[in-house]
Amino acid sequence: MKSNINSVKSADRVFQIMELFQQEKTPLAARNISKKLAMPRSSTNVLIKTMVKRGYLGYNKNHFTYFPTTKIAELSEWALEHFFHHQEELDAICEKLSNETRETVSITVISNDEAQFVNVIPGLLPVTLKIYEGSKISLFHSACGLALLSLQEEGQIIKLIESFNNKIGSSTNNIDKTEILEKINIVNKRLVSIDYEGAYEDAGALSIGIPETIFGKPIAISVSGPAQRIQNKETKIENILKAIVLPYFVKSQITKS
Question: Which CATH code for domain 2-74?
């Protein structure tokens, strides 16, 4: 039993190391990896050596640093080919949103009762909202979450709410079905979901849900940043979102609503 627990812990740490490189975007020394992940140095060394041996990490002998190899990207290459039916269009949409708003732009999908970031373009301004690809936020308290829910049938939305409420088992934090359905009704009429400080403190976001799929899942495209700044230019961002996103997907979105 102890052996199984240790194996699971080691597997989890491997993913933590990979995600750390994604966050830092720079080669790292073993001591840096150990410190940033609060991981024992001995365990870090064993895992890193294994990853080097398997070809997933490279090693710079001059600087004593490690870095991911292309083998990691090759593992998911087949999946990337199937992620989007309109990859070029979505890339163009996100790049244009980034250039015109200069705020953080992201694509999210539903992951159980959360929204997961699968693509993030960092904001171009000095102070920006930092979001990591792979991270998750509440499906019920975020702009992207509500945008994603707006693409679901009412019965499925209720199932998600009931499942969440049963999981947390706390009446004080339970999700109110009526309140969520009212919010989604507003999103469907406006075609844009707007939220301030629901998911992140001092952060605001505007999001549009579109029926484009990642392995059968609808997605949401969002623009987010510091709450006050987003609020000050809310109308401008909403107009930009609609002008850039809706020409590609408005027909499906209107049919859905």
Answer: 1.10.10.10
